[in-house]
Amino acid sequence: MVEWIITDGLTDYAEALQFMESRAGAIAAGTAEECIWLVEHPPLYTAGTSARPEDLTDPDRFPVYEARRGGQYTYHGPGQRVVYVMLDLGKRGRDLRRFVQQLEDWVIATLGTFNLRGEIREGRVGVWITRPDRPANADGSPAEDKIAAIGIRLRRWVSFHGISINVDPDLEHFSGIVPCGIRDHGVTSLVDLGLPVTMDDLDVALRQCFDEVFASGSAPAPATHSDI
Fold it and tell me: What number is the average pLDDT over the span 170-181?
């Protein structure tokens, strides 16, 4: 059984960290069910274990938290669905690479319910959207924007942290960091792409696609990149 929790309003980030730490410990001890927790946060930046100081370009803009997850700097704020994934990999094969592939497949499948093609790229974290409506890059490659970030942590084979998907955040708020250390590409959202998707719409799709990806028991095709 996986418990799903949706918290309305804006959740304090420090409280979220405390909840995840406690719940992950209880899952590992066998005293609590696995959990998917859907939240929004007030505007803030988080630093992963690979964050570089020079990538925090506006340190006084919003609070900055040490997240202790994989990855670099990211932004959280209203209009962005943060999905905290507390699953017991000890009971799911203890295969970290496959787990990250499943997270990526989950995001891509969820976007697909809105007829949007999400992709992963070698050497670039997160899930990306090709933008044929934008000028090509200087090297002739198509423009791409990031729509979702993935960063996790494991303790005693229980995951926490997880995924963030941009529904309709203020994209200008990403300008205070170099998102995930990537300078040559931008960020986008479902609404920015012209899709009138609500947070409730996304939550329904996440639930549906979670069951398809994680309950199927089938291993997805190898991913070219993961951020853990």
Answer: 85
Rounded to whole angstroms, the Cα distance separating 20 from 167 reads 23
In angstroms, the CA 222 to CA 98 distance is: 8
CA 21 – CA 122 distance, rounded (Å): 31
Residue among 151, 143, 145 nearest 127 (CA): 145
Catalytic-role residue among 38, 111, 180, 228? 180
Global pTM value: 0.90
Q: Which residues contact 224 (CB under 8 A, 6 or more apart)?
A: 120, 121, 122
| DSSP run (H or E) holding 2 | strand 2-10
Residue 48 has pLDDT above 60, yes or no: yes
Burial class (CB in 10 A: 0-12, 13-18, 19+), 122: exposed
Cβ 103 vs Cβ 162: under 8 Å:
yes
Give the pLDDT confidence score for residue 142 in this predicted structure: 87
180 is catalytic: yes
How confident is the model at residue 14, as a pLDDT?
Answer: 96
